[in-house]
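Supplementary notes (optional reading)

For those who missed the lab, this is the record we used. Protein: DNA repair photolyase. Length: 287 residues.
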Amino acid sequence: MDNNELLVQYEKRRIFIDIAFKGCGSGCVYCYSDSSSDKQSLISLYHVDKLCQSVLEKLDDSIYYIISFCPNTEPFKSDESCNLIIRIIKKLRHKKVAFQIATKEFIPLNVLKTLNELSRFKNQIFINISMPYLETKIIEPHAGTCEERIRNIQNIKDFSNLSSCLYIKPYNSFVKNNIDKYIKLIREEKPDYVCVGMKFEEKLTSNSTCRTMYTKEIAEKTISKNDFIGILKIKEELEKEGVLVYFASTCFIVNCLMIECEQELYKYKPEFCQKCVIRRIGDEKEY
């Protein structure tokens, strides 16, 4: 297996790209990555260029892709990691792609400015501000503070080509018991949209990654009935604030860009597909 296979995962129209061979540095206790507390072992500029060339060769110009950074590491942990993200976007942005970046760190203003300039149109770059907990010192010991993450939402408003998502994933007891705090946060900061994500009950293997949620077998094992009811209830409460709420981070993207959705998870639980204008593959019903 070459390095590109370790760093890039292809899932239909979605491409996951990592910028580190191992390590994240945030140390989140719920993370599926085996090296979440380790310092990032970042890839080199040579690897970035080789990786991008490999991705470009696999793209079908007739298909719109969502490129997601980074399933196993933190994209904005350091100046070096920020520069790698920017370099990849520069090399791929001219294709039919949208970029999705999930972070628990403060994003420097100069980085937001560069991303805004690189985005060829509004909603080519989506930034997910991950906040599954509002008290993070123990749960997410080496990640950015919640105050820093809230500043991201505030700052992104100044850049017209960027969109912000309050990313509440994994769904957990803290979210369930503190919904009023999240409502207050949404009311005050007004992110472009909210994602209330799933909770995985167990890590299936030591190398499990986020792609596990795209198969029927895994979906049935990882979403309990109680979680499902709880997430729907939270969605209803958040929507009272006039904010768009989705269950997958890609839902807002496909709705903005009007591209076809292939969420395997939701094909088996169509109750999740609400207020969606996209026709799901193999399904005549619109949501």
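If you only remember one thing from this example: The chain is about 35% helix and 15% strand.
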